[in-house]
Amino acid sequence: MKKIITAILLMLITGKSIGQTETFDITTYQPPKDWKKDTGQTVVTYSHVNTSTGSFCVLLIYSAIVSTGDEQADFNYEWTNLVTTRYKTGTSPKTETQSTGDGWKVVAGGSAVKIDSINAYLMLTVFSGFGKTVSVLATLNDQVYVPDIDALLASIKPDKEAVLSKPVTSTAQAAGNDAVSVTGIWSDYSATIGNYVSASGAFIASADASEINQYEFTAGKTFTYKYLGSLNGMMLYTESSGSYTIKGGNLTLHVKMYKSRMISRGGAGGLKEDKSKEKDEVYTFYIGPNKWEAGPFLNMHKDGNYYPWSDFPYNYYKKIR
């Protein structure tokens, strides 16, 4: 893989791109043709999946942040926040550094990872200069995608003159920022749970989803969690509420009320409180993309819990309101 990184760096110095260009944040680039695109507030995602071979590649171009003034320090910072936090890969990898003709320092490095038991490779390329840092993260499980990554990176041109309004604009990086906001309604289903359950917990519709998880966080640091799922031919409804705190990359839910009931189309059983579940729950979290989409998603992880279709063992919820 070292030869691949070297080839990409050489293309960044000498390569020329042709074709349609796009701009995200301060960066102009040529996207891969016919890939799925998702645009978020702080990241644009391009993904391609070959269903016949099982190969895939996901490219994420992040909005710029303020540089530390040292390209290797910029890379280490981005690796920690964009890779280590999600994939638990350990320390920063060996890197290669080159300079582009227009004055940017480019540092690239990569690491092998497992994603849902699939062997894959992560490659982070960080552009540093003129007080700015722009990062591009590639996740792939087949080297057939290397030419597409080469072409994208060779086409990238960050704007030297752009003025950054915030020191950190990547919400994936902002997971370490105590001021990051989770306010809103987040769900792992396309509709709110209110479409199926009344405010009192009564079943009001035929559930066309096997399971719905929903969090609502307020600016006043309170939260409500609701769950609806099937169990023994009936629907199980649970809800909990309390306050929450954010410290670094941790989201702590201080559960003060937890109740559940079995509900059916003909009525509802009693809502029973469970004191044993009224305790603190600590999650590692960040707001940003999940494996395939830009989101934004509230990505939450609790040690010991593993979830399919994710970049590391976490569950994710899309903001729906």
Rg, Å, rounded: 22 Å
What kind of assembly state do the chains in view correspond to? single chain
Measured as a percent range, the helix fraction is 10-25%
**Average pLDDT reading:** 78
Structural class: mainly beta
How would you name the CATH homologous superfamily of the largest domain? Mog1/PsbP, alpha/beta/alpha sandwich
Q: Examine the secondary-structure arrangement and name the CATH architecture of the largest domain.
A: 3-Layer(aba) Sandwich
Low-confidence stretches: 13-18, 165-177, 306-313
What is the strand tally?
Answer: 21
CATH topological fold name of the largest domain: Protein Transport Mog1p, Chain A
CATH class of the largest domain: Alpha Beta
Query: Mind summarizing the main beta sheet?
Result: 8 strands, antiparallel
Number of domains: 2
Count of helix runs: 3
Query: DSSP strand (E) fraction?
Result: 35-45%
Through-space gap between termini: 43 Å
Described by the principal axes of the CA atoms, the overall outline is elongated
